[in-house]
Amino acid sequence: MTKIKKTMAMVLILIAAMMMAACGSGGGGDSTPAPTPTTQSANGVWSGTLVDNINGTFALGCLIYEGEIISVSEDAGRIYKGTYTVSGNTFAGNVNAYEIGGGLVDSGTMNGTVVEEVSLTATFQSQATTGSISVTFDQVYNRDSALSYVEGTWTEVDGTYSMNLTIAATGGITGSDSIRGGVALPPAGS
Question: Do 169 and 92 reside in the same domain of the chain?
Fold first, then answer.
């Protein structure tokens, strides 16, 4: 071997040795452990669409909080109630469907993805149909709340039906309607 070839071989070996030393002995590059995925929160008020592969596309509003789901689709004539879990950004739930003004009509499961305070998309499979939901977060969820916001008397009239509901500053609720008469709920903790 000529002196130049020997020198080049030594330089290449030296460069290779320095590169290997820079990578560490693990051979895997950076020795910093991968970050643990953060579990996203699905808590919030959400609105969007429900696509029922048999019955069509409907507007959907949801309140999702601490493992409980309550959703309403007036267009579909349904109220949905169930439970859910989130692991990382994976959303999974079990939901029952009730006819508005009626009883249980279906039950099923949903699986999807949640991006905290941004979006939730899922597919569902029930005893009667399959489909998907796509909802976005509503900032109304982050507003402050107080009884003073709802305190007072609320009235609804629809044709010959009327309802009055009074919410006291203490949280007590009293009310009546033109069909059933009166009702009273004591404030929480009493």
Answer: no
